Structure formats: C-alpha cells, structure tokens
C-alpha cells in the first residue's frame, strides 16, 4: 500500500505533469516542423538543387540482385546495404529548424521575463536608529 501512495504522490507532482504536457506538445510540434520541412522548405531546396525527393537519395553499398528496381524501398526489401543519406538530410534539416524555433521561443520568453521583472527598487529607508546616529555624527562634525 505504501508503494502505491508514493507512486501517486510522484505522479501528481507538478514536474511530472509538466513533463507529460511537454512531451505531448513536443510530439504535436514535431509534426508541425515535419510538415514545414517536408511541405515548405524541402520543395524550395529541391527546386534550387533540381531534385524533387531527398528521401530517395542513397548510395548502394553491395551487389544488387538481378531484376531489383533501383529504388530505396526495393533495395532495402532485397536486403542490399544502402547508405540512405537523403533521409538523414531530411531529419537533420528537421532538427535544425526545430532547434532554431525553440531558440526563438526561449529568447522571447527570456525577454518577456526581463520586462516583467520590476525595475530596481530604491533602497529601503534606513532604520530609525541609523538616522539618529547619522544626525549625531553630522552634528559632531559641525564647529
């Protein structure tokens, strides 16, 4: 019974719930970034380079059986070792875009935090004893 209580306390802690929300939002955000890369950025890059589909960029590393089509899927199904660098390029671009978007978000959040921080306050007024001691000091300095 004690373990269940400990687990319940752990599961309802704010950090665990925040993490769960973050993972769910991150998965949805990953889909958005995947769409931005696949549907917006890669077609522009492909138009500049002259290729339409980066996922089909590969290098064959072994012998190809007769009658096997020279597509990535067909070569993988035939068990031919291939270096599929096109897929890696797509994933790397996804990562760079995601990292840049997160950077912009963190930068904006930090800016908002700085704006929300109250300006430096004037130092608090000195205690009454300190004021009296300063007055005594000042009166002793006078001739």
Structure notes:
- It is a single chain.
- This protein has one domain: Orthogonal Bundle (Non-ribosomal Peptide Synthetase Peptidyl Carrier Protein, Chain A), CATH 1.10.1200.
- The radius of gyration is 32 Å and the shape is elongated.
- Strands 1-2 form a two-stranded antiparallel ribbon.
- The model has no long low-confidence stretch (mean pLDDT about 80).
- It has five helices and two strands.
- α2 crosses α4.
- With about 140 residues, it is an all-alpha fold.
How is the topology of this model organized?
Blueprint lengths: L1 H10 L2 H36 L9 E2 L11 H6 L4 E2 L1 H32 L11 H14 L2
Antiparallel strand pairs: 1-2
Helix pairs in contact: 2-4
